[in-house]
Design brief:
Elements (H helix, E strand, L loop, with lengths): L22 H7 L8 H10 L1 H6 L4 H7 L2 H8 L2 H19 L3 H5 L8 E4 L15 H16 L3 E6 L7 E4 L5 E4 L11 E2 L9 E6 L2 E12 L2 E7 L7 H4 L10 H21 L6 E5 L5 H14 L3 H10 L1 E4 L10 E2 L1 H8 L2 H4 L4 H6 L12 E2 H7 L3 E4 L2 H10 L15 E2 L6 H4 L2 H18 L4 H4 L7 H30 L3 H6 L9 E6 L15 H8 L6 E6 L7 H16 L6 E4 L4 H10 L2 E4 L11 H7 L3 E5 L2 H6 L5 E4 L8 H24 L9 H17 L2 H44 L4 E6 L6 E2 L3 E9 L8 E10 L5 E9 L1 E4 L5 E8 L4 E11 L14 E2 L11 E6 L4
Parallel strand pairs: 1-2, 1-9, 2-8, 9-10, 10-13, 13-14, 15-16, 15-18, 16-17, 18-19, 19-20, 22-30
Antiparallel strand pairs: 3-4, 5-7, 6-7, 7-8, 11-12, 21-23, 23-27, 24-25, 24-28, 26-27, 28-29, 28-30
Length: 877
């Protein structure tokens, strides 16, 4: 190895010399559109099957290493050229198709969404992802491309990506970090009009760090990746984009500065001014500050006015259900990296630090990236219905006085990109019976999938059995390679050839090995498990994969226990752990397993997408009711471990739920799988497969997810941003000033009287008249909403599932107070209650909950909120 310190090294690039007739092949290779089109993948396989495997399914490397003689042969292969021409035309149609947004919302006009994420999982050969978050981001881009959404991605180009995993002889996880070969990937360096690389810089402590920009084409969507591994930077700064989730908190904050601040600057340098910025998890939250800085600089504003404009078009998606999963930085770290930057925002350090604190005045509290993202975004969401509930509970302190269910955090349940995860055989089968154009162009349409009932049982089962057989053969080969690399004895390696059985019920468990995911739950009673593994008539087999974070010793110990338990059960033939879990491994598993197992502690799995990928392939799920499965589960779709219980004693929880899992396997799952007719087809199992696909495919695919983001988040953000930004930000400035006025005046507001006759029971749909008298001080009635918050009362006197109704202003009293009057109508019998509150009103506050600006009627009590009970009689009262 020759060091640049020893001699000047002059670089040059070597590219494949493709004959003209094969040029479309290079175009396909440089657009990740090929990753979700089996016909494109088949082209690369036909070039050289063995080389395709050795290149880890990297078409750019394949073409660069393919012998010229083979390329010349392909020029004379009419069948190959015909397939190439057809595939290239399909890609061109994708690139020119009329966007869905233009058809659905023709009056919106042009706009751009910038989607920021720390990782993107698009294909196994571009290792810049670790797991679910990255794959979700990759599927988001692919579905946006299919819809023609004007979206761009922004991430980091990690020189070594995420770590590669192998196990030592004892089963302990080891890591290594190979360099990515940028020159042989679907990457293009972004250059300016003069041909020079585009560069931006950010301040990291006392240094200016240069950032290069690379582009990845994902169909019609551009993904821009930032790179600090440049000669202009010193070794420390070159390593900022070295590893995904590597290093300490100093490394993490520098990566997040590059992603957030550097990402915004990179877009500006390329002439891109996004209308909306979507932060997928909090790693990119510093982008919100940089957007504010640009507005301050362009319009000479104070922070609050610029913040209103920027926040209106920021969207934050949180994926974390526990506080420990949030990036938090000590005040001294923030001072070191943002001591100069905060002055550009016209803030002092105390006010700057308050942007990331739940308790703004606590000088010892760490700076939370999630708190920053929430406070700097008009719209916030979790990634499943249950996670939305968990998130509102986690962050309710940011909105003091607001009932937990009204905390302004919504949810968009994750989805997966169907064509990326479905097996080629199943895609062909669906094309024949559902119609390729129908299910591929509109996979979120429930009616499209109902035609799966027309697919003959034996054809669907045959496709699935072929996938299981392929999985078993591939797993044997991987296991043999693992054992050889580990230095296993020859007998163990020979046994690998007989590992698993192509006709046995195959259970898949693959995910990150964190303790809350309970990867060893199925191994809790080894004697009972051994009975199922060794049953001669109805056996099961288990394939497991997943990585533990390099610093997570507890996660590594879970993997070691699985390896040791497998050996003690003589499980080399029935229990297999696949090393180095990635997209390729996941694809084999979700397509070839029969049952997908998921065992997290309830409330700790934000969404989970691997089970969705399995369901798309007709693989049935058996899972704790957490994340997506909490809203997806039905008796005819799969199985639930427990009924959604939560436990304070984890050991008791594991004991109860492991027994529940064993009972499901022994009494329901295994018998159903092996119940065959005279044609050896498990008709009832196949019926569940069909129901699983037809019900879950339209609900939990990324097309539905992206469309939901457009309808519920992107377009509302666009409208509000345009409204506040019109006329040189006139309304954004007015809103900031109005909030200042309200905060100054809020302590003088008072609810004087509440009049409502609640002495006698109401009849259903009978109106209850309510009049409220309030003192508003310097505020005008148009600036305040008087609301009645009504709902059922529980036995403790709490309002559950309350709803707010506004009372119109009816009169101004001579002494300056105001009367508001209206009525409520209750449609169910029982004991109800209502309370009265004041919140900001007016056009610019519509749908906005402002922290600190809420006043509840407390009556003569010193604490709590006065609740008025209302009895509603039933129909026969």
């Amino acid at each position: 190895m020759l060091s640049p310190d020893l001699a000047k090294i002059r670089s040059f690039e070597v590219v494949p010399q493709l004959p003209d007739t094969l040029r479309p092949l290079a175009a396909i290779a440089h657009n990740l559109w090929w990753t979700w089109h089996p016909e494109a993948v088949e082209l690369f396989v036909r070039v050289d099957r063995d080389l395709w495997q050795k290149c880890n399914h990297n078409p750019v490397m394949l073409l660069g290493h393919c012998p010229q003689e083979r390329l010349n042969e392909l020029c004379d292969d009419d069948g190959f050229l015909t397939a190439l021409h057809r595939t290239f035309q399909n890609m061109q149609r994708h690139l020119t198709r009329t966007p869905w947004i233009k058809r659905r919302h023709p009056d919106v006009g042009d706009f751009t969404v910038a989607y920021f994420c720390a990782e993107f999982g698009l294909t196994e050969c571009l290792q810049i992802y670790s797991g679910g978050l990255g794959c979700l981001a990759g599927d988001h881009l692919k579905s946006a491309a299919a819809l023609g959404l004007p979206l761009i991605g922004v991430g980091l180009l990690y020189r070594r990506g995420y770590f590669q995993q192998y196990l030592n002889a004892d089963g302990w996880q080891q890591e290594y970090y190979p360099d990515l070969d940028f020159a042989n990937l679907s990457l293009d360096l972004v250059k300016d009009q003069s041909g020079e690389p585009v560069r931006v810089d950010v301040q990291i402590a006392d240094r200016q760090v240069q950032i290069g920009i690379w582009k990845v084409q994902v169909g019609r969507v551009d993904l821009f990746l930032l790179d600090t591994n440049l000669p202009e930077n010193d070794e420390t700064d070159r390593a900022i984009t070295g590893q995904l989730y590597g290093g300490d908190m100093e490394t993490r904050i520098t990566q997040e500065i590059v992603l957030g601040i550097g990402g915004v600057r990179a877009l500006v340098a390329m002439g891109i001014d996004p209308d909306i910025c979507h932060m997928n998890e909090g790693h990119s939250a510093f982008l919100a500050l940089e957007r504010v800085r640009y507005i301050i600089e362009a319009h000479d504003l104070e922070f609050d006015a610029a913040r209103e404009q920027a926040a209106a078009s920021n969207i934050f998606t949180t994926h974390t259900p526990v506080p420990a999963g949030i990036d938090r930085f000590a005040p001294e770290i923030m001072d070191r990296y943002f001591g100069d930057y905060c002055s550009l925002l016209r803030l002092d350090m105390n006010r700057f630090l308050a942007l990331g604190r739940e308790r703004a005045g606590d000088e010892d509290e760490f700076f939370s990236m999630a708190v920053l993202a929430i406070g700097m975004s008009k719209l916030v969401n979790g990634v499943s219905r249950l996670h939305g509930v968990v998130s509102r509970s986690m962050w309710c302190n940011l909105w003091p006085g607001v009932p937990e269910q009204d905390v302004p955090i919504g949810s968009v349940t994750n989805g997966v990109h169907a064509r990326s995860w479905m097996s080629g055989g199943l895609i062909n089968l669906l094309d024949r019976y559902l119609g390729a154009a129908r299910w591929q162009n509109d996979p979120a349409d429930q009616t499209v999938w109902q035609s799966i009932t027309e697919v003959p049982d034996d054809e669907l089962w045959r496709v699935h059995e072929l996938r299981r057989q392929r999985l078993v053969l591939w797993t044997r080969r991987r296991l043999r390679e693992q054992l050889e690399a580990r230095g296993a004895d020859p007998e163990q390696i020979r046994d690998a050839a007989d590992a698993l059985d192509p006709s046995t019920l195959t259970i898949g468990f693959a995910r990150r090995f964190a303790t809350y995911k309970r990867g060893t739950l199925i191994f809790r009673d080894t004697e009972r498990l051994l009975g199922m593994l060794s049953n001669r008539e109805r056996p099961i087999q288990i394939i497991i994969a997943g990585k533990a974070h390099p610093m997570d010793a507890s996660g590594k110990e879970l993997i070691r226990k699985i390896i040791q338990t497998g050996r003690s059960l003589d499980g080399v033939r029935r229990i297999v752990f696949l090393e180095n879990y990635d997209i390729n491994v996941a694809r084999y598993l979700v397509q070839g397993c029969d049952l997908w197992l998921n065992t997290p502690r309830r409330g700790m799995e934000a969404s989970g997408t691997s089970g969705m990928k399995a369901a798309l392939n007709g693989v049935l799920n058996c899972s704790v009711l957490d994340g997506w499965w909490d809203e997806a589960y039905a008796n005819d779709l799969g199985w639930a471990i427990g009924r959604g219980e939560t436990y304070s004693n984890h050991d008791l929880e594991d004991e109860v739920e492991s027994h529940s899992l064993y009972d499901l396997l022994e009494q329901q799952i295994i018998p159903l799988f092996y119940l065959r007719d005279e044609h050896r087809v498990p008709r009832q199992w196949v019926a569940r497969m069909k129901q699983c696909i037809s019900t879950l495919a339209p609900k939990f695919n990324a097309t539905r997810m992206v469309q939901q983001y457009v309808e519920q988040y992107y377009l509302p953000a666009l409208r509000r941003s345009r409204m506040l930004g019109a006329d040189n930000l006139e309304k954004a400035i007015a809103l900031a000033r109005q909030k200042d006025r309200m905060r100054a005046a809020w302590s003088s507001l008072k609810i004087d009287e509440v009049h409502a006759d609640t002495r006698l029971p109401l009849g259903i749909q009978q109106k209850l008249d309510i009049r409220v008298t309030a003192t508003l001080g310097e505020l005008d009635p148009a600036e305040v909403k008087v609301q009645v918050y009504v709902g059922k009362l529980d036995n403790d006197g709490y309002i559950r599932d309350g709803q707010a109704f506004e009372l119109p202003h009816v009169d101004r009293r001579p002494e300056g107070s105001h009367d508001f009057q209206g009525s409520i109508e209750i449609r169910t019998s029982g004991r109800h209650g209502f309370a009265v509150r004041l919140v900001p009103g007016g056009e610019m506050f519509d749908g906005t909950t402002v922290p600190g600006l809420i006043l509840w009627d407390r009556g003569e009590q010193t604490t709590g909120t006065r609740t008025h009970a209302v009895e509603v009689a039933g129909a026969n009262a």
